[in-house]
């Protein structure tokens, strides 16, 4: 009985340690949402914090205008003048959102974008498309091309405004990718976070145009109960066939999140696009935390074998290697940065970003096999001959790549094996002691029996002699 009890204690101890090493710090919650598809994503890292049917095809309605605005910002300057044609302002469906522009009216590109993002002005979308691409169809091609560049796999745009068309569709995941990229642009972030804006007198409107943001979590409207103090922008969407769609940006505790809900219920229902969004954002802020990785990632890069063998790349004097200054990762609360796995990848040929910087690689952070953030590795001293594009960089990086691609040391497996060996050793020692003790007891009993038999024989022989 004692041996069985001791064995149970040891096994329980081992199981407890194993469970402690593999326990999850944050349990996934199932949110009750009215939306058919929903997602919340960290803007900085791109980490997905919650998802529901994120790859299901949906009709976006006016959140399409986020992509419309992104393409406009990337292909024009804010000071350009947009002249609105007759077809742009009159080629609208009945009751389509507009601000009352008339043929021949002129506004700046910046004013046009305020009209698009705050008031969802469909005629502004048409005018911007004609100004940049010469026509709506050409502009839609630019939108679809940009979607592919962002990694969208379930998106096809057919217009610039989001009015329902059978071949105009996207997914919650793709809209999050588009919305994330758009918010990285400071012009877009400023405009989408503006509550009210006034377009001054134009050549056709002496009183100008007063604009206000339709997003109910940013500016109190018909439903003031949905105002959210951490909301910093977003875009609403609705058509009868698309139902309610909503993109929302929010900032809190160093984190910037974007949520997307698609095919949600109306605001006057108890469960709706705004209550869904509130649940998504609160879930993200309550369960995750932002970790800055600038110093950690540059330390990973600086200590890598690349910079011991190829010292011209990096030294404290030139400091030619850099990473994204705002780089960060999103992890469940109570999970530390050193619990992530880091992977450094170097490119055989350097890439060039939109700012002209050379990208020679990237640092990726993963947690539980999911990517939670990372940063590009930049080389800014592009005039050095060691970085000429004509040089085969694969010869430089081969040793570094082999080193950083090695699998991390399996500490958990080693710890588990050590624990099992200790348990087995303890059990072996315990059983050895028990066997030894029982053998000693058995020997004592045998000696006692022999002694008793000798005494009895002696007594019998004494008795016989007396007779």
Explain what you see.
It is built from 13 helices and 15 strands. It has 467 residues and is α+β, with helices and mostly antiparallel strands. It has a 5-stranded antiparallel beta sheet with strand order 2-1-9-8-7, sandwiched between helices. A 4-stranded antiparallel beta sheet has the order 11-15-14-13. Strands 3-4 form a two-stranded antiparallel sheet. The longest helix has 56 residues. The protein is elongated and about 150 Å long.
Sequence of strands across the biggest β-sheet: 2-1-9-8-7
| Helix/strand order, N-terminal first | HEEHEHEHHHHHEEEEEHEHHEEEEEHH
Q: Helical region count?
A: 13
Which residues sit in consecutive blocks of at least 5 with pLDDT less than 50? 1-28, 307-317, 384-391
The N- and C-terminal alpha carbons lie at a distance of 53 Å
In terms of structural class, how would the helical and strand content be classed?
alpha+beta
Anisotropy-based shape? elongated
What average pLDDT do the residues reach?
A: 84
Rg, alpha carbons: 35 Å
Residues in helices, as a percent range = 40-55%
Oligomerization category of the chains in this entry: single chain
- Biggest sheet statistics: 5 strands, antiparallel
Question: What is the number of strand segments?
Answer: 15
**Beta fraction of the residues?**
15-25%
């Amino acid at each position: 009985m004692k041996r069985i009890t001791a064995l149970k204690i040891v096994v329980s101890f081992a199981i407890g340690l194993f469970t402690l090493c593999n326990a999850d710090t944050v349990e996934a919650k199932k949110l009750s949402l009215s939306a058919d598809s929903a997602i919340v994503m960290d803007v900085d890292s791109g980490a997905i914090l919650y998802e529901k049917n994120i790859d299901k095809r949906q009709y976006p309605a006016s959140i399409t205008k986020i992509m419309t605005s992104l393409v406009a910002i990337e292909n024009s300057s804010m000071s350009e003048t947009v002249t609105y044609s007759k077809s742009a302002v009159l080629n609208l469906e009945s009751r389509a959102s507009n601000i009352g522009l008339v043929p021949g009216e002129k506004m700046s590109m910046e004013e046009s974008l305020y009209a698009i993002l705050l008031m969802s002005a469909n005629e502004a979308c048409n005018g911007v498309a004609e100004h940049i691409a010469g026509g709506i169809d050409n502009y839609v091609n630019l939108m679809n091309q940009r979607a592919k560049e962002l990694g969208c796999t379930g998106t096809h745009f057919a217009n610039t405004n989001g009015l329902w068309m059978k071949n105009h569709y996207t997914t919650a995941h793709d809209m999050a990718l588009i919305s994330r990229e758009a918010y990285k642009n400071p012009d877009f972030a400023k405009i989408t976070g503006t509550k009210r804006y006034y377009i001054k007198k134009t050549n056709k409107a002496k009183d100008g145009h007063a604009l206000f943001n339709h997003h109910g979590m940013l500016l109190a409207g018909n439903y003031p109960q949905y105002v959210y103090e951490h909301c910093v922008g977003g875009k609403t969407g609705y058509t009868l066939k698309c139902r309610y769609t909503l993109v929302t940006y929010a900032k809190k505790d160093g984190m910037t999140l974007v949520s997307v809900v698609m095919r949600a219920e109306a605001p006057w229902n108890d469960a709706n696009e705004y209550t869904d969004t509130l649940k998504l954002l609160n879930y993200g802020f309550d369960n995750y935390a932002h970790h800055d990785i600038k110093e950690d990632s540059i330390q990973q890069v600086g200590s890598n074998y690349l910079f011991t063998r190829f010292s011209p790349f990096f030294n404290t004097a030139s400091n030619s290697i850099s990473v994204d200054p705002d780089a960060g990762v999103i992890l469940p609360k109570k999970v530390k940065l050193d619990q992530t796995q880091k992977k450094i990848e170097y490119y055989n040929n350097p890439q060039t970003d939109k700012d002209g910087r050379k990208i020679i690689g990237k640092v990726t952070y993963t947690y539980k096999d999911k990517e939670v953030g990372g940063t590009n590795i930049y080389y800014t001293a592009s005039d050095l001959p060691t970085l000429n594009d004509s040089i085969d960089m694969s010869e430089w990086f081969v040793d570094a790549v082999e080193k950083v691609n090695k699998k991390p040391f399996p500490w958990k497996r080693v710890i588990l094996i050590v624990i099992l060996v200790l348990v087995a050793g303890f059990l072996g020692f315990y059983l050895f002691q028990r066997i030894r003790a029982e053998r000693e007891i058995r020997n004592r009993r045998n000696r006692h029996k022999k002694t008793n038999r000798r005494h009895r024989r002696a007594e019998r022989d004494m008795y016989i002699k007396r007779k």
